[in-house]
Amino acid sequence: MSARAVYSPVTLHGRRVVLRTLGDHDYEGWLEVRVRCRDWLVKWEPRSAHASSLPEDQRSFASRCALRERERQLGSGYGFGIFVDQRFVGEITLSSIQRGPLQSAFIGYWIDEAFAGRGLMPESVITLLQYAFQSLRLHRVEINIIPRNAASRRVVEKLGVRFEGIAERYLEIDGAWEDHARYAITAEEWADRAPELVANWLLPVQA
User: Fold this and answer.
1) What is the extent of the structural domain holding 176?
2) How many CA atoms does the CB half-sphere of 106 hold within 13 Å?
3) Tens digit of pLDDT for each residue in 121-170?
4) Strand ranges in 3-121 using DSSP code E only, listed in sequence order
5) Cβ–Cβ < 8 Å for 79, 3
6) Which of 66, 72, 158, 185 has minimal CB crowding within 10 Å?
7) Which region, left, alpha or beta, applies to residue 92 given φ > 0 means left and ψ of -120 to 50 means alpha?
8) Best CA proximity match to 22, nearest among 90, 84, 108
9) What is the C-alpha to C-alpha distance for residues 77 and 69, in angstroms, rounded to an integer?
10) Which secondary structure element, helix H or strand E, spans residue 67, and what is its range?
11) CATH code, domain carrying 182
12) pTM of the predicted model as reported, rounded to 2 decimal places
């Protein structure tokens, strides 16, 4: 079955960003960003020492979109493109969703270097957290970041997501086992902080 045949978009709206599941028709916009920002992105991406970097051909992209759609149908993960004024600027995922006693998941993200530092990623994270806690009814969401990745850490620090410590040699990144700073938020914390976070990042700015 082709990626186009199974494509069934899910869309979430922030203040400036739109999060939408990707289809094969998004390939050209995605490729332009990936090629232009390759040096900015690849050094932070999970990859074993013997693996190639993320395939960027159209067929691989379509297969990846179809896989993400299958994960969504199974309830095991949600992958979204980040769009600003209909322009593709990055991706954000809610992955490894566990039900049963855990009710947990992980958020990962990347953004076009040209759009970094504008508050778009914190807004995207809050948009996805709102979906994770209020629609999917998860209990805990983690975000794990290489400690020296200052740009990614600023995202969670702007939002005041709780820091839990350093997990040593946690994930293989660009061929090396890297420590990760672990951040997490629970449903109880979200309930306490949602009014503030939603008002600061998602609601329209009052004139």
Assistant:
1) 8-201
2) 8
3) 999 999 999 999 999 999 999 999 999 999 999 999 999 999 999 999 99
4) 11-13, 17-20, 78-84, 87-98, 104-111
5) no
6) 158
7) beta
8) 90
9) 9
10) helix 58-74
11) 3.40.630.30
12) 0.92
